[in-house]
Amino acid sequence: RSVYDGEEHGRFMEKLEARIRNHDREIEKMCNFHYQGFVDSITELLKVRGEAQKLKNQVTDTNRKLQNEGKELLLAMEELRQCRLQQRNISATVDKLTLCLPVLEMYSKLREQMKSKRHYPALKTLEHLEHTFLPQVSHYRFCKVMVDNIPRLREEIKELSMSDLKDFLESIRKHSDRIGETAMKQAQQQRNLDNIVSQQPRISGGKKSKKEFSASSELEVKNTSPMSEQDSGILDVEDEDEEEEVPGAQDLVDFSPVYRCLHIYSVLGARETFESYYRKQRRKQARLVLQPPSNMHETLDGYRKYFNQIVGFFVVEDHILHTTQGLVTRAYIDELWEMALSKTIAALRTHSSYCSDPGLVLDLKNLIVLFADTLQGYGFPVNQLFDMLLEIQEQYSETLLKKWAGVFRNILDSDNYSPIPVSNEEVYKKIVGQFPFQDAELEKQPFPKKFPFSEFVPKVYSQIKEFIYACLKFSEDLHLSSTEVDDMIRKSTNLLLTRTLSNCLQNVIKRKNVGLTELVQIIINTTHLEKSCRFLEEFITNITNVLPETVHTTKLYGTTTFKDARHAAEEEIYTNLNQKIDQFLQLADYDWMALEPGSRASDYLVDLIGFLRSTFAVFTHLPCPFVLQGKVAQTACMSACKHLSTSLLQLLLEAEVRQLTLGALHQFNLDVEECEQFARSGPVPGFQGDTLQLAFIDLRQV
């Protein structure tokens, strides 16, 4: 700047040129000094260049050879790299598959269990799969699909288990009959075993127990009663069957669907829903079971099937109660049983009322007892059933009375009303064995001889005993005391005597074609039956072990029945005699204006007196002196004479007879004398003095 400012530019340039020349001389000196070294260096560099070229060629050749040799190594290295990569991928895959395979196996197991309808294990598998395995592999797409399917699978398991339950409910509805039959067979076997045990001889003496008495009386019935041929045992089990074990309800029905469904719904948190559904369906089935068929009363099989279904229903419910916790409760079953008991009793009352066969009623009673014993064995109260049986007992008595009315009618209609002839000792003992009759005089008489009564006496007596046996059979197994049984039998027997037999006797006595001889024989027969009433009392006492002196013991009214029948027969004799007298008197044809009387009594009166003589002769020759002692013949004769006297007096005094001649009066006097002669002749022994003639005293005076 000072150069430019001082205008010393030329000088500065000169100085600068001089400075350059100095430096050039120094450089030239320096170069001259190092020139040989430079040349030598150049020479060496030229040599080095040649060697470097050789080295380059060698390196290039070596590199070429190395490249050629390294290609295979590079290929091997690449392969090794790929193998290492694959190995690493495989290892990772194995690790992932190790996690996934259990999931897939569990899912496969789940599908297999559902296919084989093992729903509860399937549900457990599903729970295990959801909470244990799927969370470990949740990022895989197929796992997400599984997770999405789990609610659907749960619902499917729920529906399938419910379907199995519905099939089970339908199955037990169909098989209730068989289940109930099996349960009642078990109860029958137990009762038979109890009876066998109770029949063993007791160490301590004393009266028979009720079961011993039942067995012994049943044996007696079999030995003496023709009805025993139609024994009314229910569900009798053959000997070989008794040795076999009868299967229980759990052996006949597979309850696993209920248990599975209950567990499944419990796991799914829907136990209350399941319990409600089960109870609702079973309640519907109970109503169906309790609906009796309309023709149930026609056969015993109808009742048996009805009872089997009810027993089967409650056996299943009892089994469910004791094998599950809370599916059904005791209160629920008790409520069902109360409903069933009321409907069953109502059905039995209705249908049993249609039954007119005492054998069927007795079989029904035995079936009801077995039905009650069976359910009582399962803890159900059955007192109402036994109370109802007492109602059926009254109906049974009525059907027995109707049946025995027919039996008595047949006996009375088929009787010949003649004393029973006996030709030998065997026949005599047979009749005495049938009817309690003892007569020392008759026993002393030689054969052939006659009993004073006709055949209907031993037959009626035997049938009364048969009736008592029939009543006794109904009282068996009703858990009644001996006094109650005795009272029941005596009341029914009284009805038989006072109503049924009495009506039959009255009908025989009142029928139009009955003869005087028959009426007399009826009097004889009823007298003997009246005497046999004390033997019937003893018979009932022997089979019930209740002494007649016991308080409240009902007495038999047979004596009154036979007395009434005898009195009716006597009245019928008097009425028939009077009717016969009236028939003869209708033939009377007096000529009240006759001038002269006849030489003898009127023909109609002679015939009438002849009829009376022959009639009373029959009375006199009957082999039964107590009839005469009982004044039957005297009363009949006195009644006939009084009626004849009164009728003749009415003929004489009737309004149409306004006048009569002395001849007509003499003729009438002859007739009266004929009557007085008949009275004096003593047609019936036993009258004192002229007692019989007094019947005509008023007529004589007129």
UniProtKB/TrEMBL annotation:
Domain Exocyst complex component EXOC6/Sec15 N-terminal: 15-184
Keyword Coiled coil: yes
One GO cellular component term noted in the UniProt record for this chain: plasma membrane
Region named Disordered: 197-233
Composition skew (Polar residues), residue ranges: 222-231
One of the GO biological process terms: Golgi to plasma membrane transport
Highest taxon above the source species: Eukaryota
Residues forming coiled coils: 13-83
Keyword annotations from UniProtKB, A to Z: Coiled coil, Exocytosis, Transport
Domain annotation Exocyst complex subunit EXOC6/Sec15 C-terminal: ranges: 384-702
Any Pfam family the entry gives: EXOC6_Sec15_N
Keyword presence, Lyase: no
Homology family: Belongs to the SEC15 family.
Name of the protein in its database record: EXC6B protein
Organism: Elachura formosa (spotted wren-babbler)
Organism lineage: Eukaryota, Metazoa, Chordata, Craniata, Vertebrata
Gene transcribed to yield this protein: Exoc6b
